[in-house]
């Protein structure tokens, strides 16, 4: 692909966590740019039309291997990891079961997907891992969550070095608060972990939440030839949250 172009015609993409939220918006945009898109998720009922959708639990490495193998028979060019759950609790209230659930969902699943995809990922391919602005700063009652998001950044930087000889690029996108079902669940009973929804909005200098489509844009940018010399990088799309 020539540098500078944003077309993805002829490219085969896999979006883990593509059934909702940021992952779904990314799958939609990849389709619009011409990619052949497959989606993996625990719930694929709302997967974008035009995608190949496979239901799988990202915490199960054997199931992930089989799911990736089923959609990658003709190779892969793009892998996007957007699996994630929230966990809000003080550290003394985060037991081993909670810790392991968050770690396996938010971090281990990324490795399982990439491990399964690598035999199919062609030279010149790209991996984009979605983390969070909380990979870069702390937040009260988010210790387990922030550990996994920071882990994604460290994992991705090392992975970029390991895969550079194959011409495969690896980058991270760190969104701020995004208006997704996952975020809305935190405010279902009124206040969320950082006060009201308005309080959360006020933590962002742009004074609003992002849309999932706004985060899909930098993810897909990193998959295009326009980003051909970018690897091992962290692209922050947080409305100024970490600039304060």
Describe the structure.
The protein is an alpha/beta fold and 244 residues long. It has helices spanning 21-32, 61-71, 96-117, 143-163, 181-185, 197-202, 212-221; strands spanning 12-16, 36-41, 52-55, 76-81, 121-130, 169-175, 234-237.
Summarize the structure.
The chain is 36% helix and 17% strand. The chain has 244 residues and is α/β, with parallel strands linked by helices.
Q: What number is the mean pLDDT? A: 94
The counted number of beta strands is 7
Ends: how far apart? Answer: 38 Å
Strand order of the largest sheet: 3-2-1-4-5-6-7
Point out poorly predicted stretches. Answer: none
* Sheet with the most strands, sense and barrel status: 7 strands, parallel
Chain oligomer state = single chain
Radius of gyration: 17 Å
Name the overall outline: globular
What share of the residues lie within helices? Answer: 25-40%
> Roughly what fraction of the amino acids lie in strands?
15-25%
Structural class: alpha/beta
- Output the helix-strand order: EHEEHEHEHEHHHE
Number of helices: 7
Question: Features of this protein?
Answer:
single chain; 244 residues; alpha/beta; seven-stranded parallel beta sheet; 7 strands; globular
Set out the fold topology.
Elements (H helix, E strand, L loop, with lengths): L11 E5 L4 H12 L3 E6 L10 E4 L5 H11 L4 E6 L14 H22 L3 E10 L12 H21 L5 E7 L5 H5 L11 H6 L9 H10 L12 E4 L7
Parallel strand pairs: 1-2, 1-4, 2-3, 4-5, 5-6, 6-7
Helix pairs in contact: 1-7, 2-3, 3-4
């Amino acid at each position: 692909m020539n540098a500078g172009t944003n077309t993805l015609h002829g490219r085969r993409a896999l979006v883990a966590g593509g059934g909702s939220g940021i992952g779904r918006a990314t799958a939609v945009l990849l389709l619009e740019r011409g990619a052949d898109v497959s989606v993996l998720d625990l719930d694929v009922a709302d997967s974008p039309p035009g995608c190949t959708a496979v239901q799988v639990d990202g915490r199960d490495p054997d199931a992930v291997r089989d799911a990736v193998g089923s959609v990658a028979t003709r190779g892969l060019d793009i892998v996007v990891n957007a699996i994630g759950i929230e966990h809000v609790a003080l550290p003394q209230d985060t037991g081993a079961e909670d810790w392991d659930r968050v770690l396996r969902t938010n971090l281990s699943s990324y490795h399982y997907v990439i491990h399964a995809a690598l035999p199919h990922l062609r030279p010149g391919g790209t991996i984009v891992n979605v983390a969070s602005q909380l990979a870069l700063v702390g937040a009260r009652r988010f210790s387990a969550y922030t550990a996994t998001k920071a882990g994604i950044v460290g994992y991705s930087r090392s992975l970029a070095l390991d895969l550079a000889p194959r011409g495969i690029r690896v980058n991270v996108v760190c969104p701020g608060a995004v208006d997704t079902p996952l975020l809305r669940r935190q405010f279902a009973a009124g206040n969320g972990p950082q006060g009201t929804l308005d309080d959360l909005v006020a933590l962002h200098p742009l004074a609003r939440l992002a849309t999932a489509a706004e985060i899909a844009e930098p993810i897909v940018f990193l998959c295009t030839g326009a980003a051909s010399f970018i690897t091992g990088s962290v692209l922050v799309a947080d409305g100024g949250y970490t600039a304060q």
